[in-house]
Write a structure and sequence with these properties.
Strand content: under 5%
Radius of gyration: 18 Å
Helix content: 55-70%
CATH class of one domain: Mainly Alpha
Main location: secreted
Pfam family, one: Ins_beta
Subcellular location: Secreted
Family: Belongs to the insulin family.
Protein name: Insulin-like domain-containing protein
Number of helices: 5
Distance between the termini: 53 Å
CATH architecture of one domain: Orthogonal Bundle
Shape: elongated
Largest sheet: none
Length: 81
Amino acid sequence: MDTRGTAITVVCLILLLSNPSFAAPKICGQRLVHIVTKICTPSSGGEPCFDTTNKDLPGLRKSCCLNGCTLKDIAEYCCSE
């Protein structure tokens, strides 16, 4: 590969990896509901448990759908086991 081709490849990779949605995908609607329910359901089973003392679940929906969020971000809205 020539120098120009290498430079173009490097620039494309930098742009791809620097995109925030690469690390934190946008999750909306039923997909978000499914993921939140799965993450917040205790490993022993039962109903999902949400920690809303200092957190706003509608804020989670807005944040995940507009800006993207990680599984770690979502887990912050679950009760501690």
